[in-house]
Task: structure prediction
Amino acid sequence: MHKLFIISALAIISTVVPFFSGCDDTVEFSNTPPGSLSITRNLCYLAVGQAVTLTGEASDADGDSISYSWSAAEGTFSPPDGKGEVVTWTAPAVAGVYRVTLRVTDGIDQTTEGIDLEVGPKVVYIPGEIVLDRTDVPYFIDSVTPLLVQSISTLRILPGVTLIVNKTTGGLRIEGTMIVEGTASDRVTIKPNVCPGDERSWRGIVFSGSHAVGDLSYLNIAMAETGIDARYEAVVACDNVSIEGCEGPAVSVIDSARVDMDHCKVWDNGTGIYVENGIIDLAYSSIRYNGVYGFYMISSGYSRPFDASVDSCVVANNLGDGFVLSQYADPVIHWNSIFGNQTGAGTGFALKLTPYSEYATHTIDARWNYWGVTTEAGVIGQIFIDPEATATVDYSGWLMEAPVGD
Result:
């Protein structure tokens, strides 16, 4: 019986195989490759040898599990094999633009996405002249203290250069000469190492000492503690300089320093321009949207000089007062558009005198300005606030229309 059953089974198989021998025995099914690839990073700017965290994101329409792997011709990964949704890539020691590629696979198909990372050189102090001229990658100040340019040295920055400050305590301290040669089409930018939309501060540019000189043209300064800090007889000239997003003053001029500003923009800073026993000359500039004040000026009236003029500028929409004058401060304020300086509660003055010294009987020359009102009574109400102030204000020739705009 067993032998008979085996023979019969073989006979059945022999009849079935020829029946299927002419058919396609492959199995077809569809697969959708991973999609929606994106790469995010925790740093938008990299110095040589600096590490950046890269995060990949993808989806799979079929619900398959996906895996990530990263590759680059240069630099190193952590983990070393470059596998994982999140990796760290350390830039090589040579400045340049490097391509990092992300590959995502579902075990059947793969999709790739790449990102170009600009890696810039670090700026270190070298006696003599330092010239920054590369525009393909940014330069970096990586020290925890401001980079010092001594009295015998010059820092020269050519058009189109970007200078990134890596540390919040870093910045520039100029005891010699700093020359910025930006142009209208190729401005120079100095800012912290943040991606667009993020906030972070750095120390700013400090000019200190009688040998400190600044000649700054078409320069953007962003998110410093103090944008330009001039002190101890330093001399700084600013032409088409923009200072925005600083935590404190955009410009500080103290202790016999001098700052000249022409066609400059001072917007959205913690405070505007602070002058204490210093010299400042502004013309055709815009001082707007700063906190607390547009200008704060103090003169002690002693050995250190005070001299200030604000001519043909817009001083508007500062969240407090336009001008605050203290002690012997007596600036010349001519042909300006001064309006809308007030807090959210509606308090604020175009020009505010704090109590002067009893010997401070100066007359503030504030003629030929537009005060944002249409009646003389309104002008007086905006200017005088403290009845104990002994100085007076000459606002004669006040204008019905704004003489200058941004």
